[in-house]
Amino acid sequence: MDRTAPPATFADSGSSVVAAYSGIATFTAGLARRLPVNAGTLATMRIDEARGLASIMVVAFHAIGSESLVHSSWAYLAQSLTFVRMPLFIAITGYLYGLRRGHRPLTFNGWSKRTGRLLPPFLLGTLVCWTISLHKGHPFEIVNGLLFGAWHLWYLQALAMILLAVWAMDKWLQPSNERLWMVAGMAFAVAATGVFSGIAQLSVAKAAYLLPHFLVGAAIGASPGLLERRRNRIAIYAAGAFGLTAHQASLLGIGPEWAKTSLVAATIGVATFTLVRTSMPASPVLRRIGAYSLPIFLWHLPVASVLSALLLHRFGTEPHIAVVAKVAFGIAIPIAAAIACARLAPQMLIFVGRRATSPPPEPVAKTRCPAPALKAALA
What value does the CA radius of gyration of the chain take, rounded to a whole number of Å? Predict the structure, then answer.
């Protein structure tokens, strides 16, 4: 991903990062011992809250990137979360897969059904993105949009490729739940070699980058007892703090080149998911947002683009206010559209990223049995 130059106010803080670098492991170990661990989330993850947090980070990233804030603290914050946003999103999906892996493995039929549910919003989203780009005077070829994924829709292609790879893994390798960690480590190593980096068709390169994070989430979901051991959490947090510090140093222009590789992304992504998995607080707002995470992901960028074209640029809104407005409307409008479709046209839910639910079955009328005394009288 392209690196954004940090603002001048942050460049002066490079010396403090270097000074803290030597003692990062000891500090993290002490901090991890005091981190609050939600007893409820050790048994079951607060999935909707985690999805809500990831959704806000993704929407904010696109809102910042579309404004003239390249050298501001907004852009620095967005770049600092580069190895957090999408790895957290895909790790949650992997976690859900890991929970049901033992009794409901992924089959080819299951993969085709899931991919089929992603196809309608992908096609509609590609058409909408093409229409907006045509209005802006920078249209892309429809074929290229379908082949490489237009705008942010590459994620749907990458998710389909990841699920296909997981199906092949379960069919031929059949690793146990404990060995999923080994498979995830191998996937990280393969991604670090860059062997798939040149394959842009169907977003294979991005799928190769996200697949290890999916497998880590699956390993944690399949073996929940792993994170109950404090020493395991301390080791994960220490590795994540080391990667985060290295990444910050690279953003400030004082870090090594390897700080921008997928191996550093691995430490940050795994530590972030572990923290969210074990210590995510309950939040009704995040839970509500997370329940509509896919509609938000699908439609926040078209909403932000239309909002920018119709209102913000026409009336000359200040860029910082524009970011807040795009985040707010990018979350609220997809949720409102999903709710409206559910109430008015359930058959359209598939286009906004939600599955229509079938009406509950009619209750079966029960015949009342006569009382024992009445039975004796009738005999």
Answer: 24
The CB-side HSE value for 174 (13 A sphere, CA atoms) comes to 2
Residue 194 backbone zone (phi > 0: left; psi -120 to 50: alpha; other: beta)? left
Q: Which amino acid is at 255?
A: G
pLDDT in tens, 90-118: 999 999 999 888 777 888 998 999 999 99
Report CA-CA distances (Å) from 164 to 100, 107, 109, 116, 159: 17, 9, 11, 13, 9
Q: Residue 39: what pLDDT?
A: 40
Q: Please name which of 268, 209, 241, 281 lies closest in space to residue 81, comparing C-alpha atoms.
A: 268
Residue type, 29: A
**pLDDT for 251:** 83
Spans in the chain with pLDDT lower than 50: 1-22, 24-25, 27-29, 31-32, 34-43, 356-379
Distance CA 69, CA 320 (A): 8
Alpha helix locations (H) across the chain? 8-11, 14-21, 24-34, 39-43, 47-65, 73-80, 85-99, 108-136, 142-144, 154-168, 180-193, 204-222, 230-251, 262-279, 284-290, 293-307, 313-315, 319-344, 372-378
C-alpha distance from residue 54 to each of 16, 207, 232, 296 (Å)? 29, 18, 24, 11
Given the structure tokens 């146990």, which residue do they identify?
176
* Distance between CA atoms of residues 172 and 194, nearest Å: 24
